[in-house]
Structure formats: structure tokens, C-alpha cells
Design brief:
The chain contains 3 helices and 15 strands. By secondary structure, the protein is mainly beta. The protein has a 15-stranded antiparallel sheet that branches.
């Protein structure tokens, strides 16, 4: 498995795994925040850069409404077309997670990876939230089934759900997440409030520090810090992740969502 774009999965995990805090309460989505983040028309675009500002590529996240009540599709697309790796190590990865219900739990997750000149992979994961069974299939391999209990998120649904949970500085909460072929009782902790200059202007944010103990789809090393806007839109405006050498940063460069009028339509333009 390729180990590129470590930050991307750090962003989409948005989680802290800390065994010492296993007594934290199960996190619950704040219902009043759902009409904005799960409006079905949200699109976030990030520039991903290496230490010193070398741009590697882009990450695009979208939330789309599906037919039926409380059914949505989370789309994530990683590309090096606009970065330094375009010719040396092209990447085009598409991740689609379907979620449903008031807790926005996953029922299906599919990923298509195109990395380098010859690496191609397809994965399908099906979540049965009633029985607590997760079925995973890679390419044409035989499917594998895991009994993990319910409820359980994947890395993408966990990122969007934890974004909408109470963010009290010094507080933490659990987000059960299926990764590395097992259920992880992930703890999310909010460390501080901080103002950042962003494409949205100067924004009050809440700072979260993930300590990621599971790898997930991509390898991850070191600490990760996420900054969420401290308002009803809860936008992840910046992510920084340490790697074995240096660090990676994802910075929000464009945002669309008619249900978040204070920020919708903001986009970074080259001078």
C-alpha cells in the first residue's frame, strides 16, 4: 500500500486515540448543527503542502444528499495535479462514504486508488449497524468479515461527526471507529481556542490535537493538530501533521455552502 498524503487521512480521521482516556463519554452530534454541515451542498477544498510551503496537491471534500431521509454521501478526492508531484508521482484517489440516520453512521464505503504509474486498488466496506458486522473486500480478494459491535464509524464519517460534537476546551469524548481491521475507541480532545488568518478572514477557532495510534488506509506518524471555526459552521480551516521528516499542512482555500452564508463563496486567488 502506498504511503503518500499522510496528512489527508489525518484530516479525515480528525481523531485522538488515547488509551488512558477510555472513560470519556460517547460523543453525540449537536442536532442544531446538522442543517449546515449536512445540508447536502457543502464543498471544501484544501491545498496540501510540505514543510516550507512546497505544494504537493489538493484535497476536496463534499457532502451530497441522497434520496430518503437522513442519507448522505461524503466524497473525498486527493490529487497531485496542482502540485510538485504531478509528474513524479501522480495521485488520484476517490473515497465515497454513504452515511444515514441521525448519528450519520456509515453503511457503505468505497475507495478507488490510482497512485504512481502502476498502483491501482479498489476497496469496498459494508457496515451493518444493526448486527455490528463489517465486511471488507479489496480488489478481487475474498471478503473478510469483522464483528465489531455497534455503533461504529469509519475515518470519514468520524471526521464529519466529531466536527459537530460539543467542543469544550479541556473536554473529550469517544468516537468508535473501525480502522486497521478492528474497532478503536477513539478519544477526541479539544485543547484551546485560537484566532487564525484564513481564506475566510481572521477566524476564531478551536484547536484539537489528534494522537493517531491506528494507521487506517494511509500510514500516519507523529502528532496532528486541527483547527475548527468556533461557530455554527464548524469548518476545519487548517490541519498540520508531523511526519518522519518535517510536516504536512492542509489549508482551506475554497468553501461553498449556501447554508453557511457567512463563509460560502470564499476562495483564494493567485495574485
Amino acid at each position: 500500500m502506498k504511503k503518500s498524503f499522510i496528512l489527508f487521512l489525518a484530516l479525515c480521521s480528525g481523531l485522538i486515540h488515547h488509551q488512558a482516556q477510555a472513560t470519556a463519554a460517547l460523543g453525540e452530534i449537536i442536532p442544531e448543527l446538522l442543517p449546515i454541515a449536512y445540508s447536502g451542498g457543502e464543498k471544501l477544498r484544501y491545498a496540501v503542502s510540505y514543510t516550507g510551503g512546497l505544494r504537493l496537491g489538493t484535497l476536496t471534500l463534499e457532502v451530497k444528499a441522497l434520496p430518503g431521509p437522513d442519507r448522505f454521501q461524503l466524497r473525498a478526492f486527493v490529487s497531485t495535479d496542482e502540485g510538485a508531484l504531478k509528474h513524479f508521482y501522480p495521485i488520484h484517489d476517490l473515497h465515497i462514504t454513504e452515511v444515514q440516520g441521525p448519528a450519520r453512521l456509515p453503511c457503505r464505503y468505497e475507495v478507488w486508488q490510482e497512485e504512481g504509474k502502476d498502483y491501482r486498488a479498489h476497496r469496498l466496506t459494508v457496515y451493518n449497524q444493526q448486527t455490528g458486522l463489517v465486511t471488507v473486500r479489496k480488489n478481487n480478494d475474498q471478503p473478510r468479515q469483522f464483528a465489531v459491535g455497534a455503533p461504529v464509524h469509519n475515518e470519514f464519517s468520524a471526521f464529519f461527526a466529531s466536527r459537530l460534537m460539543p467542543q469544550q476546551v479541556g473536554g473529550d469524548f469517544l468516537v468508535p471507529t473501525f480502522a486497521d481491521s478492528k474497532k478503536n475507541q477513539v478519544v477526541v480532545r479539544v485543547l484551546a481556542e485560537e484566532r487564525l488568518k484564513t481564506v475566510l478572514g481572521e477566524v476564531a477557532t478551536r484547536k484539537v490535537t489528534p494522537i493517531l495510534k491506528f494507521h487506517g488506509l494511509y500510514d500516519k506518524r507523529g502528532d496532528t493538530i486541527l483547527w475548527y471555526s468556533a461557530d455554527e459552521c464548524r469548518l476545519p480551516v487548517k490541519v498540520n501533521s508531523k511526519i518522519l521528516i518535517g510536516s504536512l499542512t492542509a489549508r482551506l482555500i475554497a468553501y461553498e455552502n449556501p447554508h453557511c452564508p457567512r463563509y460560502s463563496g470564499k476562495e483564494e486567488h493567485d495574485d
